[in-house]
Amino acid sequence: MTSRGAVGGGLLVLAVWSAAGAESPAVAPLLKQLDLVAYRSGTMPPAFSARTVDAHELSLAELHGRVVVLNFWASWCAECRPEMPVLERLHRSFGSRGLAVVGINAREAPATARRYAHDLGLSFPLVLDQEGKISGLYGVVGLPSTFLIGRDGRAVAFAIGPRDWEGGPALAIIEAMLAETAPHPDSR
Amino acid sequence: MSARKADFKRFEALGIQNLAISANLTFSQQTFAESLKLPFPLLSDFPERRVIRAYGMLNEKTMVANRSFFLIDPQGILRRKWIIENPTTTVVYSDTLLRDIQEILGKR
Fold first, then answer.
1. Is A37 on the interface with B (CB under 8 A)?
2. Could you tell me which of A43, A63, A10, A1 has the C-alpha nearest to residue A179?
3. Shortest CB distance from A158 goes to which of B24, B25, B31?
4. Residue B34, SS3?
5. Would strands B42-44 and B58-59 be described as parallel, antiparallel, or unpaired?
6. pLDDT tens digit string along B60-72?
7. Which residues of A48-83 are buried (b: 16+ CB within 10 A; e: fewer)?
8. Cβ of A139 and B36 within 8 Å?
């Protein structure tokens, strides 16, 4: 899953790992440029497991070892819509290197979310949250809201409102997070 | 946002420290506070819910707090409480609270 990224850097990867956290001097300015709120080191995002629009079960735990971009959206959310093709491109460009883009649909019917995904040609996993349980766990009251989670499963930063996820700061953050060493499965 | 800040300053002007407490995770509270740009602290009473229960505000069925406000004076004496009867539909306006508080504090 992430072997190329993990092995490719050797000792250098280890150095980048220590520099890729939200509190590091290298990443902190990038988070600020993108107006992201950094989490204190060691913050764990709430676990969840739910169905996707294509009826698969997806849990946050199974994404451990990958960098996760968790985006809360809804079809009625005008500011969410322009982000979706961008997130799709991130998914296609970085998925093989260990990036997992996951959309959490906020309180809509499966058919609505499915139609939206079809219309926009989205292929990354879209989780259904009809009762708003996941939104509640994450404290989401405005859309879009996006959370960045590191390979070690810890929350790095979040954004309230839309961002340029293809811009220089965003790509630099993603690259830095992807450069982290994927943790050993037994190290959870 | 500016209205919320202005309201907050009106509480501050009366020497009041606003604190909000809920049975939510600190993780969700941080998102919530950032989304609304809240200028006062949110306290998490999760998972014990000891404070919420001590104030008699825990809904034991849903394990969440009933919406309510408590006014505590500098001596630590509870001076007033406001319990919201229909929490999902009732909007609590700062004006109402501030008017009552001003009466209690004798400040006009």
1. yes
2. A10
3. B31
4. helix
5. unpaired
6. 999 999 999 999 9
7. bebebbeeeebebeebbbbbbbbbbbbbebeebbeb
8. no
Please write the tens of the pLDDT for every residue from A31-68.
999 999 999 989 999 999 999 999 999 999 999 999 99
Name the one residue in this structure whose structure tokens are 């989304």. Answer: B35
Query: Which residue of chain B comes nearest to A42, CA vs CA?
Result: B27
- The ipTM estimated for the assembled molecules is 0.81
Q: Are B29 and B42 in contact (CB under 8 A)?
A: yes
**Contact (Cβ atoms closer than 8 angstroms) between residue A84 and residue A144:** no
Q: What is the pTM for the complete model shown?
A: 0.85
| CA atoms of A177 and A21, how far apart (whole Å) | 8
CB-CB neighbors (< 8 A) of B35 in chain A: 139-142, 145, 160
Say if residues A180 and A97 touch (Cβ distance below 8 Å): no
Contact B66, B59 (CB under 8 A): yes
Could you give the CA distance from residue B83 to residue A60 in angstroms, rounded to a whole number?
38
Query: Helix A83-94 to helix A110-120 angle, to the nearest 10 degrees?
Result: 70
The residue whose two tokens read 């990036």 is A99
A70-88, pLDDT tens digit by residue? 999 999 999 999 999 999 9
Containing H/E element for B30?
helix B26-36
Q: How many helices (H) does chain B have, and how many strands (E)?
A: 4, 6
| β B64-65/B58-59 pair status | antiparallel
Dig out the tokens for A23 from the structure. Answer: 């509190």
A7 contacts chain B (CB < 8 A): no
Phi, psi of B7 (to 5 degrees): -60, -45
